[in-house]
Amino acid sequence: MRWLPALLLVLLLVMPLFIGGLSAVAVSTFVLDRGWYVGFLSDERLYDLPDAVSSATWHLSFAGLSGFPHAMGREALRELLPPAYLRDQASAIIDQVFTYLWGRGPLDVSVDLSPVKRSLAGDGAKRFALALAKGLPEASASTAVPKRGTIPDYRPKGWTVDQTARFIEASLPPVLASLPDRLELGDTVPLPWRGFSAFGMLIGAAVVMMLLACGAWLGSAFAFSDVPRERLLWLGGSLLAPALCVLAIGAAAAVSPLALSWARMGISFADFAEIGMGQGFTDAVLNAVRLSLGRVSTGFLATGGIAAGIGIGLLVWGGSTPSSDQKDEAAAA
């Protein structure tokens, strides 16, 4: 009955630990890769605004941009915050988060406003001022002339679009001078303790689970039999089972048409038009999901494939090892 404790050891420890450890290794192949996140957010369509966006749809609420109107139309927003700039800032924020998760410094999420300030000079200032003036609502009654050096939230009654644009362009230098070069998006989050590393903890957890799994795996083989051939066959079979489970996860993620159909169904329930996003944004989200599923499947298929290869190798080794009876027959001959 030596097989019974060995089987219980495999079912209760070896398989769960191997599945958890191999999954942690597979996850680490993309979670720890900065390029995976950058690729996910690199499509400029994620930051673009459709033509239907009006000044009532988008509002700026950053304290650092308080000198600008809170409501802007698409054309003015594209001049102020073009998609390429937003993409670059998203990449910079990923770097800041990675710095924190690796334990190299506190989490200080901020964006660089110096490109915005540089773009709103010369011809850029003229384009922004005209685009903003076109989208400003006209005051319903006569009001005081806006204060010089400020950008109005409305077009004074009786002012033409060109007149308002010239006023905005003349007000841009003092408004830009009041902007900080970097805009903090929140409070600084210090490291919880000295030596903290979230990614290091993930790697450590994967290593510990794999070590425990290997120890229980080898122990089950010695509990199963004293015969080397039977031990090798046991080791191969007990490793192949969790490896196939991990392979199945990778195969499921690799079936992108099926996975994308579920993603497309989920996205269809979200009404992006309510927040001013068009079909391009939806297509970009689907493309990001497709790329992510491909990377996830590669990680699980590679990890599960390596483990399955080792398991098959042990089975072949055990199958080619002569049994004790075969050894006795060879000795007798």
Structural description of this entry:
The protein is mainly α and 333 residues long. Helix 10 packs antiparallel against helix 11. The strands form two sheets. Strands 1-2 form a two-stranded antiparallel ribbon. The chain folds into two domains: 3-39 and 194-332, no CATH class; 63-184, no CATH class. The chain has helices at residues 3-31, 34-40, 74-80, 83-101, 114-119, 123-135, 161-177, 198-224, 228-254, 256-268, 279-320, 324-332, and strands spanning 58-59, 71-72, 110-112, 182-184.
Summarize the structure.
With 333 residues, this protein is mainly alpha-helical. The chain has helices spanning 3-31, 34-40, 74-80, 83-101, 114-119, 123-135, 161-177, 198-224, 228-254, 256-268, 279-320, 324-332, and strands at 58-59, 71-72, 110-112, 182-184.
Question: How does the SSE layout of this entry go?
Answer:
Blueprint: H1 3-31, H2 34-40, E1 58-59, E2 71-72, H3 74-80, H4 83-101, E3 110-112, H5 114-119, H6 123-135, H7 161-177, E4 182-184, H8 198-224, H9 228-254, H10 256-268, H11 279-320, H12 324-332
Antiparallel strand pairs: 1-2, 3-4
Helix pairs in contact: 1-8, 1-9, 1-11, 3-6, 6-7, 8-9, 9-11, 10-11
